Amino acid sequence: MTDNRTWLVTGAGGMLAQDVLARLAAAGIPAVAAARTELDITDPASVGAALAAHHPAVVVNCAAWTAVDDAESREDEALRINGDGARHLAEACAESGTVLLQVSTDYVFPGDAEKPYAEDAPTGPRSAYGRTKLAGEEAVLTALPETGYVVRTAWLYGAGGGNFVRTMIKLEGVKDTLDVVDDQRGQPTWTADLADRLVRLGQGALAGTAPAGVYHGTSGGETTWYGFTRAIFEQLGADPERVRPTTSAAFVRPAPRPAYSVLGHDRWAAAGIEPIRDWREALTEAFPALLAAERG
Q1: For the chain, what are the domain ranges?
Q2: Of 51, 88, 197, 211, which one is least surrounded by beta carbons within 10 A?
Q3: 224 with 244: CB under 8 angstroms?
Q4: Would you say 295 and 288 are in contact if contact means Cβ atoms under 8 Å apart?
Q5: What is the pLDDT of residues 215-248, one digit of tens each?
Q6: What is the DSSP letter of 112?
Q7: Which residues have a Cβ under 8 Å from the Cβ of 45 and sit 6 or more positions away?
Q8: Contact by Cβ (8 Å): 22, 195
Q9: CATH placement of domain 7-157+189-220+261-276
């Protein structure tokens, strides 16, 4: 039986939030879409008013500062959203008995591992963005030890916003060859797959079958940006040999990128939920909508 209590989704204009809202609608779960103009998570009064007005059973926090490079020079601003904003939500949820699903990132890890990071692996962010997201994680887990859920994800793509897949679709049409980094490993993850797990996790929280704490919401398998791009070209029917491998040194950015950010998925078993499928399978299913979104 569907629990028909209302959910509230912050950052509702974003790529992930759009898919969360679509998944909730498909499940027949009433939801409030709270974009930045309706709910400013950096303002405790705004957060309190939203929870008082809607009485949500679950809050899914998709609101975030995601400009990784800009955070290096504007860490205080990023922290207000990623750290303080999450804390305001967690404290309000603690007062109202509301479940909170906090979306986090692989950047909380140092990115130098040689095997997948377990959910309880030591953190150690090397970027301002990672530090601010870790502050949000800690705030949620501290304020909500029984009803707080942190779901780390990475390499997100979807039809509802700009992302790596859509950029590569565009570049394939205008570039003879593409040089793409081959020394960063991760897990391309479709926002629709992550949205499904977030909804199922929230349902498990309400039913008492999903333990609170940290989960890793990334696809199975692993690849590099170079390998990912070759797969995108294959989906386009383009020659993958037009994609050439290069190193991170060719694309120096203000924020350091993790060389290895593959995440382990063992915790899902405790909630009775299977981990997300292999990234290649997901890309194949997602691609028609991504292509349509990019080419209009």
Answers
A1: 7-157+189-220+261-276
A2: 211
A3: no
A4: no
A5: 999 999 999 999 999 999 999 999 999 999 999 9
A6: B
A7: none
A8: yes
A9: 3.40.50.720
